[in-house]
Amino acid sequence: MDIALFSPSSLFDEDEDCSSAVGSGESENYVERKHAFPGMDLLIREFSFHQLNANLLWPGTFAFTEWLVQHRYYLEGRRIIELGSGTGALAIFLRKSFEVDITTSDYDDVEIEENIGYNCRANGLSALPHVRHSWGELFPRPNPDWDLVIASDILLYVKQYPNLIKTLMFLLKSYKPTDSKSNLMESRELHFASGSGGSNGLPKPAFLMSWRRRIGREDEALFFSGCEDAGLKVEHLGSRVYCIS
């Protein structure tokens, strides 16, 4: 498993703030910061260091948040799971803003799950449903019923691409709608790129991903080509947001 042994701020331009924080409180193991999201501030506790967690909120989280606010119809009526939730900040924002049905997910690690729960409560929410899962391993729920998978800035570790794609393949290909009515509706939402998409323009199921981190283009391309080699369809929706189905 690849472990981050560098400062996340090293991946950004010197004039690009890596936290959007407007205040902070620190402890030995954590740092709490108030982050400005569209229409609200969220108090988010981050690990001072965690070998499995990227520790900080990345610029891509805020960029993806703004994009989703502008395209909120992509979220309407969907059951959502977020991969690589980290602190849970994006899921917390979406739940508070749009009351979406959302589940968080990250490495199979109890500390990460507990920290996401802490951040939920710190922002006036009950703990969101959470799935502990390390990419590529057996998924703990054999019949996934999430019709939208989301993630932001999760392509840093190139060696993990095959494992990430394996998890995506399971979530997208093993998806089971909860009832026959939804199955009928979803059949009308396939092949959106060919002009026959559904009311919100995304097929069910789909993976909606924002990618803002700086890595080499050749490394980045390995993920998208790996998806296509696995039989998945990749479409760029603009603003570094991609739909994979």
UniProtKB/TrEMBL annotation:
InterPro entries associated with the record: Methyltransf_16 (IPR019410), SAM-dependent_MTases_sf (IPR029063)
Coiled-coil region(s): none
Top-level taxonomic group: Eukaryota
Alphabetical list of PANTHER family matching this protein: HEPATOCELLULAR CARCINOMA-ASSOCIATED ANTIGEN (PTHR14614), S-ADENOSYL-L-METHIONINE-DEPENDENT METHYLTRANSFERASES SUPERFAMILY PROTEIN (PTHR14614:SF97)
Stated name of the protein: Uncharacterized protein
Lineage: Eukaryota, Viridiplantae, Streptophyta, Embryophyta, Tracheophyta
